[in-house]
Design brief:
The chain is α/β, with parallel strands linked by helices. The protein has 2 domains: about 170 residues, 3-Layer(aba) Sandwich (Rossmann fold); about 70 residues, no CATH class. It is about 35% helix and about 25% strand. It has 9 helices and 10 strands. It has a 6-stranded mixed β-sheet, sandwiched between helices. Strands 2-1-4-5 form a 4-stranded antiparallel β-sheet. It is globular and about 50 Å long. The relative contact order is 0.19.
Length: about 240
């Protein structure tokens, strides 16, 4: 399954402020590939990921289309398709869980519901430590709960996996294990979108097939590592030589 955002514009309007955070964003996530979304703070990376996952905040108003295998779907159709098909790891992994139940209990419930991957398999892929499963979500470290959220997203064996900062707060060795799992998952045929600023891993580690660079809510550049490496844009060249 290949999913796309086409000409997506998102405006957030609260009682206190309003801002257009994405403007005519095109984003393609092909099956069997990892697409990485990069950019500086406030670029709109997380908003693009949540839009594709159908998880825009209540204060957000959007205009544009979601395409599934080249066919446009409306909001109701996409909501119906997402169940068990799209796995989502939010930027704050703790929000993927009920605050009053241990993570282990919630992972087991997802295992029984979807009957796809086992909890053990999902936790191993996410590098989530088994000894943490008896903790409540807020008792986890930032890196632990992000890995727990990835395990939860993997349990239904989704055809589309959207992960926002899955290796945030991880040491290099653990992050590498997570990236290899994501690479393996894409190689199994899934469409994988990852929001990250771990430029060195994405490029030199040859994890990402394609990268999309956002700046001020717009797509500044998109392509393979080799293609973006030839860019003459100052921001793109600087980004690819660093990490935020």
């Amino acid at each position: 399954m290949t999913v796309e955002l086409c000409c997506l514009t998102v405006r957030v309007d609260t009682a206190r402020w309003s801002e257009t955070v994405l403007t005519e964003v095109d984003l393609v996530v092909p099956a069997g590939q990892i697409t990485a979304v990069l950019g500086g703070p406030g670029a709109g990376k997380s908003m693009a990921a949540s839009a594709l996952a159908g998880r825009l905040p209540a204060a957000a108003q959007s205009r544009g289309q979601v395409l599934v295998d080249g066919v446009a779907v409306d909001g109701q159709q996409w909501a119906a398709l997402r169940e068990g098909v799209v796995g989502y790891v939010p930027q704050e992994g703790v929000t993927a869980f009920d605050s009053g139940k241990t993570v282990g209990v919630q992972l087991r419930a997802l295992e029984r519901r979807h009957r796809a991957w086992s909890v053990e398999r999902a936790c191993a892929a996410a590098q989530y430590p088994a000894e943490a499963s008896d903790l409540l979500p807020h008792q986890h470290s930032g890196g632990q709960i992000q890995r727990a959220a990835l395990a939860a997203a993997l349990l239904p064996a989704p055809r589309v996996l959207i992960a926002d900062g899955p290796t945030n707060s991880l040491d290099r060795a653990t992050a590498y294990g997570v990236w290899r799992s994501l690479r393996d998952y894409a190689d199994s045929g899934a469409a994988v979108l990852v929001v990250s600023n771990e430029v060195q891993m994405l490029t030199h580690g040859r994890v990402a097939d394609r990268m999309v660079i956002l700046h001020a809510g717009r797509v500044l550049a998109a392509g393979t590592t080799a293609e973006l490496g030839k860019s003459t844009d100052t921001f793109v060249r600087t980004l690819l030589r660093s990490s935020f």
